[in-house]
Each structure stands twice: as C-alpha cells, then as structure tokens.
Amino acid sequence: MNFLDGSLFPENQQKLVITAAPFGPEWQPSDFPEDIPVTLEQQIQKAVDCYNAGATVLHVHGREDDGTGSKRLERTNELVAGIRARCPDMILQVGGSISFAPTKEGDTAKWLSDDTRHGLAMIEPTPDQVTIAINSNQMNVVEQMCAADVQGTSLAVGTPGYFAYREMTIPAGPEWVEEHIRRLSARGIQTHFQLANIAQLETVERMMRRGVCNVPLILTWVAIGGGFEAPNIYNLANFVRACPDGSVLTLESSMLNTLPLNMMAIAMGLHVRCGIEDNLWTQDRSRKMSTVEQIEQLVRISREFGRDVANGKEAREIYKIGTFYETADETLAKNGFAPNRKPGQKGFTQFGR
After folding, report:
1. CA pair distance 63, 29, nearest whole angstrom
2. Which residues constitute the signal peptide according to the record (predicted)?
3. In b/e form, how buried is each residue of 282-302, taking b as 16+ CB within 10 angstroms?
C-alpha cells in the first residue's frame, strides 16, 4: 500500500469498518458469563447489540445450548438465519474453523475436517463471507499470552485448556484451499483471507496469477504469535507495504495488543477487529471488557481521529461484497497487483503498457 501526502488525513480515508468477534469460541461460558452468549437467542441478540454499537462485520462462531462450541453446520444455519433477519445490513463472516474447541478434556483444539469445512459453502441463508487460512500452519493462540491474560480462566497456564490450545494447528493445503475458494465463489460467498505472514499473502497472489482465485483481496493480518507474526511495528509495516493498493486490510491481535494495533489501523486508514475472541480485558486489567464496550471504545477513538465509522451499507461497498472477477488479468488489476509477464516481455510489468 502506498501512503502519499495526505493519506493520513481523515477526509482521504475510507470510513472505518469495525469487525466484532463476540462469541469467543476458545473460552468457556464460565470465563465471562456476563458477556458470552450461550443460547441461540442470546447469540442473535449479541449480534444485534454489536451492530447497534457500530460494528458492521460479525465474525460468527456458534455455541450449543449447553455452552459448548458447536461443530454442527445446522447450528450455523440457524444462527446466520436469525442474525440476518434482525440485522440485514450487517456483513456476516463465518469463521472457517466452524469450531476449534476441544470436545472433551484431554483433547487438542483442532479445526474440523476438510470435507466438513467445505460444507460452509452450503450454508443457507448464505453468509456474506467465510474466512480462510492459507498454508497449513501452527496456531498456538496462548504463546503470546502472559499469565495475567488468562489468570482465572479455562486457559490459565498449566490447565488442560492451555495445553489443548498450545498444540493447535491449521490444515490449509493448496488443493483444499483452491477448491474451497471455488465452492464459496460459486455460491456468491466472499472469501476473507486470514493471514499469518507475508509468505501466505504471496501464496494468495500466486493463486490470483494462475487464475484460480478471482476474488477481491479482502484480508486480515492476524498478529497473535504462535506461528503467526507478532504485533510489532516492523512486522506491520512490512505486511502493509506488501499489500496492493486495491486490497482492504483489517488488523487483528490478541489481549492487550488489540487496542494499540487497532489505534494504528484507525490512524493509517485501515480497519479494525475487536471482541472477546481477541481480548477480555481493559488495558489496565482492572476488569473484563465486553465486546460492545470494545466497539464503543473504537467508535469514540475513531471520531477523535476525525474518521467516520461506516454503516452497514457503506461497509458492504468498502468490502466489495458480491464482487467477483472473471480472469486473472482482471483480478490482478482490480486488486492493484502488477500484471503477469507476457511471453518475451522484459523488465518490470505494469498495466497500461
């Protein structure tokens, strides 16, 4: 991404798109009973509350009525249908893992099978987005957390939950990824790329150059450590520089890193994600902070920066919901990449030459 003179002026930036992740699939309901929705109606109402607070994208993971993370596509169908009826303009982004929560004590947290995750393309009503990981990767979500982050929770250091999540990996090989994108696109569902590092972004670019990924580059940089990059300014600057100008980038981190990274995103004209899936605490750890409180905080900060917050319809335009491309050349041009080299062509390539 290029930052020309005036790029930090709010009048030259897109309105802010806030993604809320309020369902916290890694937590037990007892970890934050005041804010973790359990029943279907509670989960739907949580989505409504997030939308009313200013979030226009909802990252969706379902729970069963007993509080366990749901691994049933039927539950996801029910949840998407209920939220769609109450918040028709909200962008519904279904988590590509469906649920990574262990089913019983002693299990390792793990993503569901390839075939099960392909079933996300058949959800009815269709969500707007499904998140996708690129390249199989470690996802040790507790590596970057300190003891104070998880004290008194089911992920406290040394507990079975802690060890279960420490060993989590993401299966996302090239054959499965390409087929998943094809199935989502055929159903009119946008692929939202959740990327751990620049190497994964380069894989996405190569797929676009081969014509097997003809979609807008709507992505999140997930800086959570444990196989993903750490949320420091050097990693962030390198990743942002690697993103083409036609992409739409959201920043995500965990625990007390979440707010500082979101403040950087607001200042830079990027987009933000918050919620108890990412962070439970106020910055001084004096108390737990609900997802709605986190959204309201970002709305206040963005307004202090002078940057308006997008409404649902505006967020859909920014995220290019419903847009797909026909060819590799169109995909590269729309996303802001250089064109493929033609046979015999020498030197650097650019569109218009």
Report:
1. 10
2. none
3. eeeeeebbbbbebbebbbebb
Per-residue DSSP letters for 309-327?
BP-HHHHHHHTTTT---SS
How far apart are the C-alpha atoms of 201 and 172, rounded to whole Å? Answer: 14
Q: Which domains does the chain carry?
A: 14-335 (3.20.20.70)
* Amino acid letter, 296: E
Phi then psi for residue 199, to 5 deg, are -60, -40
Handedness of CA 126, 62, 106, 280 (dihedral sign): positive
Cα gap 221→276, rounded to integer Å: 18
Hey, is 330 helix, strand or coil?
A: helix
Please report, in tens digits, the pLDDT of each residue of the chain (353 residues total): 999 999 999 999 999 999 999 999 999 999 999 999 999 999 999 999 999 999 999 999 999 999 999 989 999 999 999 999 999 999 999 999 888 877 766 667 788 888 889 999 999 999 999 999 999 999 999 999 999 999 999 999 999 999 999 999 999 999 999 999 999 999 999 999 999 999 999 999 999 999 999 999 999 999 999 999 999 999 999 999 999 999 999 999 999 999 999 999 999 999 999 999 999 999 999 999 999 999 999 999 999 999 999 999 999 999 999 999 999 999 999 999 999 999 999 999 999 86
> What is the residue-wise DSSP string for 186-236?
HTTPEEEEEESSHHHHHHHHHHHHHTS--S--EEEEEE-SBTB----HHHH
In which element (H, E) is residue 74 found? Answer: helix 73-86
